[in-house]
Write a structure and sequence with these properties.
The chain has about 150 residues and is mostly helical. The protein has a domain at about 15-115: Winged helix-like DNA-binding domain superfamily/Winged helix DNA-binding domain (Arc Repressor Mutant, subunit A). Helices cover about 70% and strands about 10% of the residues. The chain has six helices and three strands. The chain has helices spanning about 10-35, 40-50, 60-70, 75-85, 105-130, 135-154, and strands at about 60, 90-95, 95-105. It has a three-stranded antiparallel β-sheet. Strand 2 (about 90-95) and strand 3 (about 95-105) form a beta hairpin. Helix 3 packs across helix 4 (about 75-85). The protein is globular. About 15% of the residues are buried. Pfam families: MarR_2 (PF12802).
Length: about 150
């Protein structure tokens, strides 16, 4: 019979703070991005993925996009459809896989990310990084890398 190893008071407080930080920061970034650029966080995440320097031709397979964003197939499909209707991306069928498709960045999508990115980055800096010391930023990077490695293991 296994016993649950409950969080101690300090761990519980840190966990609740992390959950609250994530929710409040995501909501604020989404509101501000929507107000300043008309893009949602979901739009922005897809545009960032497609403009990543390691993405050749600003195009990814639908499943690759889902893997990068850790999204379910249906979420990727619905979000791409919404963005396609606004001219930000286009779908292109995959010649060697009839069921597969590519998502390509359009000129409109490129212009949208170029317009939105400076304000979004400034807000991320203002809300997140400006209050941290260089050591706190390094510690945050080490923390995130450690947790991501544990997630990759499981």
């Amino acid at each position: 019979m296994s016993t649950t190893r409950w969080l101690d008071d300090e761990e519980a407080q840190a966990w609740r703070a992390w959950i609250d930080l994530n929710a409040q920061l995501s909501a604020r970034l989404n509101r501000e991005l929507q107000a300043s650029s008309g893009l949602s966080i979901a739009d922005y995440e897809i545009l960032v993925a497609l403009t990543d320097p390691d993405v050749p031709g600003r195009s990814l397979r639908m499943y690759e996009l889902g893997e990068r964003l850790q999204w379910e197939k249906s979420r990727v499909s619905k979000q791409v459809s919404r963005m396609e209707a606004r001219g930000l991306v286009r779908r292109r069928h995959c010649a060697d896989d009839r069921r597969g498709a590519f998502v390509e960045l359009t000129e409109t999508g490129q212009a949208a990310i170029e317009a939105a990115a400076p304000g979004h980055v400034a807000l991320v800096r203002q809300l997140f990084f400006d209050g941290l010391s260089a050591e706190q930023v390094r510690s945050l990077g080490r923390f995130a890398t450690t947790v991501l490695a544990r997630l990759d293991e499981s």
